[in-house]
Amino acid sequence: MIQPVRPIAIDAIEGARARIAGTILRTPLVRLDLGPDGPDIRLKLENLQPTNAYKIRGATNAVAQLSDEERARGVWTISAGNAGQGVAYAARKAGIPCSVVAIETAPQTKLDRMRALGATIVPVSYEQAWKAAEAHAYEGLDGTFIHPFDNQNFIAGHGTMGLEIVEDLPNVATLITAIGGGGLITGVGSAVKALRPTVKVIGAEPETAAPYAYSLGQGGPSKFPEWKASFVDGAGGQSVTARMWERMGAVVDSTITVTLDQTRDAMRLIAEKTRTIAEGAGALSLAAALTGQAGDGPIVCVVSGGNIDLAKFSELVA
After folding, report:
1. Which member of 19, 55, 122, 273 has the greatest number of CB atoms within 10 A?
2. In angstroms, how far apart are the furthest CA atoms of the chain?
3. Contact 30, 302 (CB under 8 A)
4. Is residue 2 in a domain?
5. What is the pLDDT of residues 260-306, one digit of tens each?
């Protein structure tokens, strides 16, 4: 049964932190040196997690709270790669089987890593995956479903990142994260808003897939009319679900749409300054900050993941 939408409480996020502490990495908050006239930007390097993406936080918290009966059925999720890796990693640690309804156009490195973690891959089109995410079901899979973004425990796990951000940078003024399904910004935003209500929480989307910006313009959850696939495969959905519209509306102040060229530039800058790799979705937040629309800061940009084929990364940043 699908649970009703409710706020992500700070005590749930604190509980998640204790629950996942032995699995996830407390990632560093690194200042991006842009010279004396540049904005004050800090990068939260979630690309350094064991699965190279933030989704391991939510997945670990969600799997840890399953009942014995739910565990016995095994788990499944829907993913373009990062959620699948997170759930597969947590499931393997818990000793339970995992299946992933995976978008067939996902980067090969993501598909390979999910398999290496023991997941059974069920390849589907992007449209099929999005329909399954909206329905919370996929025919033929009867295990325990862990939704990749619309799941209370999953979102609370992501909120643990917000606790770390406020502890490491108490005077944070603005937080920017990519928006895919909306779980990341809801979780981190819920934690930061609870501790620092004046912080602006801003989303970032690519121009080819910006359903939240479009929905804001329409006044309600909408499908993005000119959606196109791109190298930003870990963010930018086809639409905003009614449930995630409700979740995000409580904590998100605004959103910034960036071009693919701006995203490539941000990927290159992250590599140059931190010597780490960000995938397209992971660089959206920095691309948004560099537009100037987020103010002078201190701005925290969540680098949400770094799972991209190296050949593709080299081609994009060359």
Report:
1. 55
2. 57
3. no
4. no
5. 999 999 999 999 999 999 999 999 999 999 999 999 889 999 999 99
Whole-model pTM: value is 0.95
In the chain, the number of structural domains is 2
Angle at alpha carbon of residue 242, lines to 60 and 139, rounded to 5°: 60
Q: Are residues 267 and 230 in the same domain?
A: yes
Strands 120-124 and 200-206: unpaired
Domain with 123 in it: 56-145
How many alpha carbons lie under 13 Å from residue 65 in its C-beta half-sphere? 21
Tell me how far apart the alpha carbons of residues 310 and 156 are, in angstroms, rounded to a whole number. 31
The C-alpha angle with vertex 165 and arms to 160 and 167, in degrees rounded to 5, equals: 100
Cα separation, 51 vs 14, whole angstroms:
22
Residue type for 195, please? L
Token representation of residue 16? 């998640």
pLDDT digits (tens, 9 = 90+) for 24-67: 999 999 999 998 888 999 999 999 999 999 999 999 999 999 99
Q: First-to-last CA distance in the chain?
A: 48
**Residues whose CB falls within 8 Å of the CB of residue 101, separated by 6 or more in sequence, listed in order:** 76, 77, 78, 79, 122, 124, 128, 129, 132, 138, 141
Which residues, including other chains, have CB under 8 Å from residue 125's CB and lie 6 or more apart? Answer: 103, 104
